[in-house]
Give the backbone structure.
Amino acid sequence: MARKVVTRDHLAGVVRAALGAEHHLIGVSRLRGGSKKGVYRLTFDGDSTAIVYIWDHAENYWPGAQGDDAEKHSDPFSPASGIDLFEAANRHLDALGIRTPRIHLTDRSRSHYPADIAVVEDVPGENLETLLRRDPHSVEAALAQLAEALGVMRRHTRPSFGKVALIDDGGISRGRSCEQVVLDRALEDLAEASSRDARMARAADRLEDVVRRLAATVRPRTEYGLVHGELGPDHVLVDQHGDPVLIDIEGLMFFDVEWEHAFLRIRFGEHYRWLNSGGLDEQRLDFYTLAMRLSLVAGPLRLLDGDFPDRDAMMGIAEYNLQQALAFLPADDR
C-alpha cells in the first residue's frame, strides 16, 4: 500500500495545540522502528524537539492489522497499539514513579490531524541497546535502576490478567489462565511459522510435543504482576541524567512476570544478570521461552508479508529464533 508522507503542513495544528504558537516547526522526520504506529521527531527553531505518535492504519506495517478495539483489548496478545492503551499504560507507570516520556498532548478529536495522536517529550540521549553495544559499563547505573523499576512492577499485582486498559475498566481477558493463553498462542505461532518455513514444517510435530510437555508442568496461579510486554533494550532510553525511560508502552498488562523475563533474557543476553531478581518459576520460564522463540519466528515472517522497510533485520530475527526454537528438541532429533 502507498504510505502517506507526513509533512510540516500536516502537523502544524498539532504543534500549536500541544506546545503553543511560539514553537515554529521547521522539520519532521520519521524514526526507525514503529511497526504499529508512526513515530516522528518534530524539530523547532532554537533546536528544541518533540516526538509525535500517530495511530493510523496507514502507519501500521502489520498485514491485516484492523479490528474492533474492545475485541483486541480482551486478548492479552492482540497487537498492542492505540491511544487508549497508551494512556492507560502511562497512568499506571506514572503512578508507580516509573519514567516514560512526558506527555504534552493526546488527542482523539481528529480536529488537528485525521488520526489519534500524542505529542510527547523527546528524551535526549540514546537507547540502552546502542549504549550496551558501545560501552556496557557506562550504563550499569541505568541497568540497576531498570531492575528496581521491574521489581516495582512485579509487586504491583492484580487477581486478573490482561491489558491494563481492560483491567481498569473491569473487563475480563480471553482465556482461562496465562499459561493457557500462551499455549494457544504458541501452537498458532508454530503453525504459522511452519506454513512459511520448510524447516519448521519438518519439525512441527516434535516441537508441538515439546510445547505441550512444557505447558503441562506449569501449575496454576492467581496473582499477576505488571509487565511491559516487549521490554528489549531498544525500548529503554537513557536520559541526560543516566536514568532509564520506558517507551512503546502500549503492551503494558498484568500477566505472569516470567513472560517478561523470558523476553528480557532473550533480548539482554549476558546483561540480563542485572535484571534477574530471582524467585521466578523455572518451569514456567522454560515454557514461556520456547513460546517466545516461536512468536519471534512467526511474527517477523508475518510482518514481511507486508511492506515493512527493514527486511534484513526482520529476517535475521526470524532465522535466529528459529534455530533457538529447534534447539529445544533432543540433539538427535533436530
